[in-house]
Write a structure and sequence with these properties.
Blueprint lengths: L1 E3 L2 E11 L4 E10 L2 E5 L12 E4 L4 E4 L1 E6 L12 H10 L2 E6 L10 H14 L2 E4 L15 H7 L4 E2 L8 H14 L3 E3 L4 H4 L4 E2 L2 H6 L3 E2 L2 H17 L3 E3 L5 H12 L4 E5 L1 H5 L2 H6 L15 H13 L4 E2 L8 H4 L16 H10 L6 H8 L1 H6 L15 E11 L18 E11 L2 E4 L1
Parallel strand pairs: 2-5, 2-6, 7-8, 8-9, 10-11, 11-14, 12-13, 14-15, 15-16
Antiparallel strand pairs: 1-19, 2-3, 3-4, 6-17, 17-18, 18-19
């Protein structure tokens, strides 16, 4: 449920704020939708708050952000809408999402950006539109980038389609430098992945399924980095999935190239052998595909050394008809808004791959920094976008309980440890 509360007290939680290098048990006082203090509040003052959240044994952190989400509206409302996507995000512990432009029509003009923002306002949730680089995502010319940024777009991508034309990428990055926003590329050379359905490797060979080789991603990442280095624009690599691409980003950062990247929970935890073990379940089909164990190992190293800027779900909802077919014919993509926190806590934090403050930074503070958003912090006076979660709560993934319209997940039936209990978005309290 959700309700507007003027003043909220979050009592006795473990407050972790990477933006302030803060990790201690205390209270968080919210007044008129903003952080008033991070200090103990006496019992006598508790009556002055409209709502008191008992956070004993729970973690309180800057609101989690998912900067790669497909809300499907306009055009594919049977899969998801801005409203249902926002509800799924809140249920998963997120306080804000960035929506990708591969809708129908695409988010390629100011009117569509305004429509998304109006829908988000109706949902009373934070949504930041990513606009298309090219009209119709056709890769032939640039959209009206300055107008789109002025209207509310925070970046540009033809997601689902790479920017194949190098001159267009160069021009887009030059404009991005002037506008102060990133160009987000879906790094995939389609000539190398045509008719492919999963990672090209031993598993695909055994299964007799045409593969999608790592080099299809690597060659685009290499080209993009060189163009970004030449132009000085901000390049962001979406859903990076290979060891070579990660190392290309690592070396580019050392040279001072303005390049950032994101990685998904599934590419950090699952492999192509899991696809094989699933019996080619279409809910395990995604783009980029699940890679090898060596790629997963490399990506986890990238979390530790700081090469990876943040984690994003690539939430890609599909109607049952899109997945109720053969693996080769099924649509690419899985939902992730309602499982990301649990997967990261269970598969990465619990075994010690990363510590809890680092995981929170990867899902909040560093995402906000990458897009220059005024969130991802609990500093006094900042907007009160806050996530409260129980790190010990065990739960089983039941797709039928999702707030999303879609249920295409490889995590169905899995027991995860860690779940959001409360989120505060723009002064509005969402509770389980």
């Amino acid at each position: 449920m959700d309700r507007r509360v003027a003043d909220i007290l979050i009592k006795g939680g473990r407050v972790i704020d990477p933006s302030q290098d803060l990790d201690r048990v205390t209270d968080v006082a919210i007044r008129r939708g903003r952080i008033e203090s991070l200090a103990r509040v006496g019992k006598g003052a508790m009556a002055n708050f409209g709502a008191v959240i008992n956070a004993n044994g729970k973690v309180v952190c800057p609101g989690l952000l998912d900067m790669h989400v497909h809300l499907r509206e306009p055009g594919y409302e049977h899969k998801e809408t801005v409203l249902t996507g926002c509800r799924a995000a809140a249920a998963g512990g997120f306080t804000g999402v960035a929506c990708m432009p591969n809708t129908n029509p695409p988010i390629d003009d100011a009117a569509t950006v305004k429509m998304i923002l109006e829908k988000a306002n109706e949902a009373k949730f934070s949504v930041w539109p990513i606009a298309a680089v090219s009209p119709g995502r056709e890769g032939k010319a640039l959209t009206e980038m300055a107008e789109l940024v002025e209207t509310g777009a925070i970046g540009f991508s033809d997601d689902g389609s790479p920017i194949h034309d190098s001159h267009l990428m160069r021009t887009a990055l030059e404009y991005s430098r002037m506008l102060g926003v990133p160009i987000i590329d879906h790094a995939e050379d389609h000539s190398l992945t045509v008719l492919g359905s999963m990672h090209e490797g031993k598993a695909s060979a055994i299964l007799g399924v045409r593969g999608m080789p790592c080099i299809a991603e690597d060659v685009i990442v290499a080209r993009d980095i060189l163009i970004a280095e030449y132009t000085g624009g901000h390049l962001h690599i979406a859903h990076l999935s290979t060891a070579t691409s990660l190392d290309l980003v690592r070396q580019a950062k050392k040279r001072g190239v303005h390049v950032t990247c994101e990685v998904t929970p599934h590419h950090l935890t699952l492999t192509d052998q899991d696809v094989r073990a699933s019996g080619l379940d279409p809910n395990w089909k995604m783009s980029p595909p699940l890679r090898s164990a060596d790629d997963v190992k490399a990506l986890r190293k990238g979390l530790k050394d700081g090469t990876i800027d943040f984690i994003a779900s690539d939430h890609a909802p599909h109607h049952l008809d899109d997945k109720d077919t053969t693996f080769e014919d099924a649509a690419f993509g899985i939902v992730g808004l309602e499982t990301t926190l649990g997967v990261i806590l269970t598969e990465l934090v619990a075994p010690g791959v990363v510590d809890l403050p680092t995981a929170i930074a990867l899902m909040s503070t560093r995402a906000a920094e990458t897009f220059s958003l005024p969130v991802g912090t609990l500093k006094r006076g900042s907007a009160a976008d806050i996530t409260v979660f129980d790190p010990e709560a065990e739960w089983t993934v039941e797709p039928g309980d999702f707030r999303s319209k879609s249920v295409n997940t490889p995590w169905a039936g899995r027991t995860l440890k860690g779940r959001a209990t409360d989120v505060v978005v723009q002064g509005r309290l969402y509770r389980k």
